[in-house]
């Protein structure tokens, strides 16, 4: 059937016979190879087939578009063709109305309201809460020859989330909520998608119901109070044209935002600590600039003064990006790199693959923060060379918050501790869904 006929015939996917690549085994497709090493999976196919190829994960068929140009084309989406909601369909059951699961005009109007909660005034308040929570942890973390960093930072980011996003005091309540988030996140990534008894999906759906009810009960108090947490901001936020969130919007947005913020920041902070331990010269340089500030905690107005830290953080996100692949769904047919891709097709672009592109980065497999220095500026080789936070309409709304949290943590951490890797350390990470060390990242943690 000709392509035009396929499109006219309605929303069924057109043929992909002309697109190179192979779909692997029946049902499972290329899933096993992909899950073993997602970056290698795409690198091999990019080499074998070029910038456009098809593949299949868990039965679905996807066309990968590679390179910084592809990222720009898809994320800027001038023709409003690429649906994020349908691309991220895997999150539909647990986070159906989150910001990333909305498209086009609907997405834009929600994002405009949410933006109010990320303006400098509220950000200053969040910074105070972050500093307070981090100081609490710095007092509690005991030096050890084998301190498992990953679970410790995961617990801390959850506690910080409870305080900054929800305005809850740390304690039992936070522990209950944390458990529900853990179930929800586990379910969103579960292979078995049916909520059968005893499955992660069933636990996740129950956790979602619990969390939404919990948030909903708090809305009257948050609306009436003068809290400086993000929940209170969502209750009062309006866009320039006066639009505001309903109660349903608030609970859904909070639920999604907590998920979007948590594992990503945890992963980035873990890579940062690994880098500091692996490259002591960078740890020393970062500590020097931290100590030069001369303050116990990082002040909001001093955020931009940690230049070395910024370079190491950018490199950490390039080297091990928390979000490797961004999925979209093409509503209509389009052409890219000489291929006609039919409408109703899942596509993917990958900031992680671009971050390892030898045409854009010098020796990309090396951890080298200096590539971000002004005289090298490899990240400026293409507008989308460095895109760990995405780009275009769906660019991470929490980017500045994440940067702030990482700097606040690193600042206090380096004042209190020195970090090194044990002699028997082996660098083993799980890549999907979000990078995490398989061994919890054991570090030698000592007080300075
Ligand atoms: C290092 C940490 C983080 C990384 C690497 C990261 C990465 C990303 C990426 C790549 C996207 C775009 C996804 C797409 O286009 O399909 C995104 C979207 C989003 N992120 Fe983040 N994120 C981080 C932290 C955060 C934090 C701390 C928050 C909240 C405070 C947050 C909230 C969101 C939200 C709400 C969206 C959806 C935006 C939209 O659809 O308009 N993220 N993030």
The helicity comes to: 40-55%
Tell me the Rg in angstroms: 22 Å
Oligomeric status of the shown chains?
single chain
Order of helices and strands: HHHEEHEHHHEHHHHHHHEEEEHHEEEE
Structural category: alpha+beta
Descriptive key words:
single chain; 448 residues; alpha+beta; Uridine Diphospho-n-acetylenolpyruvylglucosamine Reductase, domain 2; 5-stranded mixed β-sheet; 16 helices; globular
Structure description:
This protein has a domain of 112 residues: 2-Layer Sandwich (Uridine Diphospho-n-acetylenolpyruvylglucosamine Reductase, domain 2), CATH 3.30.43. Helices cover 48% and strands 11% of the residues. The chain has 16 helices and twelve strands. With 448 residues, the chain is α+β, with helices and mostly antiparallel strands. The N terminus is likely disordered. Bound molecules: protoporphyrin IX containing FE.
Summarize the structure.
Helix content is 48%, strand content 11%. By secondary structure, it is an alpha+beta fold. It has a domain at 1-88 and 330-353: 2-Layer Sandwich (Uridine Diphospho-n-acetylenolpyruvylglucosamine Reductase, domain 2).
């Amino acid at each position: 059937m000709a392509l035009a006929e396929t499109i006219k015939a309605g929303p069924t996917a057109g043929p992909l016979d002309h697109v190179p690549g192979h779909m692997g085994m029946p049902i499972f497709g290329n899933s096993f190879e992909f899950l073993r090493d997602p970056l290698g999976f795409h690198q091999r196919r990019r080499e074998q087939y070029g910038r456009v190829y098809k593949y299949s994960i868990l039965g679905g068929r996807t066309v990968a578009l590679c390179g910084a140009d592809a990222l720009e084309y898809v994320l800027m989406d001038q023709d409003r063709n690429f649906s994020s909601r349908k691309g991220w369909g895997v999150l539909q059951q647990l986070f159906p109305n989150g910001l990333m699961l909305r498209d086009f005009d609907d997405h834009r109007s929600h994002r405009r309201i949410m933006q109010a909660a990320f303006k400098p005034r509220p950000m200053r308040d969040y910074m105070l809460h972050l500093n307070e929570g981090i100081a609490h942890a710095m007092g509690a973390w005991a030096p050890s020859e084998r301190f498992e960093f990953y679970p410790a930072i995961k617990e801390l980011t959850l506690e910080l989330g409870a305080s900054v996003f929800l305005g809850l005091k740390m304690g039992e309540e936070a522990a209950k909520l944390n458990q529900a988030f853990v179930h929800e996140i586990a379910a969103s990534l579960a292979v078995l998608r049916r909520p059968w008894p005893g499955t992660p999906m069933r636990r996740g759906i129950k956790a979602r119901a619990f969390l939404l009810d919990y948030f909903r009960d708090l809305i009257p108090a948050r609306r009436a109070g003068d809290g400086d947490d993000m929940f209170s901001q969502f209750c009062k936020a309006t866009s320039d044209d006066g639009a505001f969130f309903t109660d349903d919007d608030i609970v859904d947005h909070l639920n999604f935002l907590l998920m979007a913020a948590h594992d990503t920041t945890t992963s980035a902070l873990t890579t940062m600590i690994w880098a500091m331990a692996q490259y002591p010269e960078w740890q020393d340089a970062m500590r020097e600039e931290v100590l030069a500030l001369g303050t116990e905690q990082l002040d909001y107005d001093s955020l931009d003064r940690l230049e070395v830290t910024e370079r190491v953080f950018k490199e950490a996100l390039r080297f091990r990006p928390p979000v490797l692949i961004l999925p979209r769904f093409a509503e209509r047919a389009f052409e890219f790199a000489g291929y006609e891709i039919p409408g109703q097709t899942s596509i993917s672009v990958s900031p992680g693959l671009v971050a390892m592109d030898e045409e854009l980065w010098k020796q990309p497999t090396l951890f080298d923060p200096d590539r971000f220095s002004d005289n090298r500026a490899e990240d400026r080789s293409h507008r989308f060379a460095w895109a760990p936070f995405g780009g275009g309409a769906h660019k991470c709304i929490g980017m500045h918050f994440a940067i702030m949290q990482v700097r606040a943590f690193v600042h206090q951490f380096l004042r209190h501790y020195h970090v090194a890797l044990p002699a028997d350390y082996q660098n083993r990470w799980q890549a999907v869904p979000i990078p995490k060390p398989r061994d919890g990242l054991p570090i030698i943690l000592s007080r300075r």
